[in-house]
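Q: Please design a sequence for this.
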């Protein structure tokens, strides 16, 4: 497990567009493995889960400088283009679960 203080742990919420739920699940399966293969995400364990409204929440860790390098990586940009078709990235605060003391989500198993 990475203990690099320059790495960044992120939590992101992907709200599926109508009829794109299965596509979004597939993208989530591909996302961090692609980032790792490009040297952009650490081996920190990934958590993927789903909110009651179908939004997928993903927790992963960028390598130091990984997020900046991702914005010029053709493979990542192509994947992000597919995400743009399948979902909207929304603030965690928009999820009803975020208003509770212990936000609870349904785990996704990949």
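A: Design:
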């Amino acid at each position: 497990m990475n203990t690099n203080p320059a790495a960044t742990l992120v939590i992101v919420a992907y709200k599926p567009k109508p009829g794109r739920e299965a596509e979004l699940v597939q993208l989530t399966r591909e996302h961090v493995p692609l980032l790792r293969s490009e040297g952009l995400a650490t081996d920190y364990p990934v958590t993927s889960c789903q909110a009651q409204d179908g939004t997928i929440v993903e927790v992963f860790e960028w390598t130091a400088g990984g997020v900046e390098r991702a914005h010029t990586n053709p493979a990542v940009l192509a994947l992000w283009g597919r995400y743009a078709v399948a979902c909207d990235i929304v603030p965690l605060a928009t999820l009803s679960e975020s208003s509770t003391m212990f936000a609870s989500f349904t785990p996704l198993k990949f």
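Q: Thanks. Anything notable?
A: The mean pLDDT is 95. Helices lie at 21-37, 66-70, 74-86.
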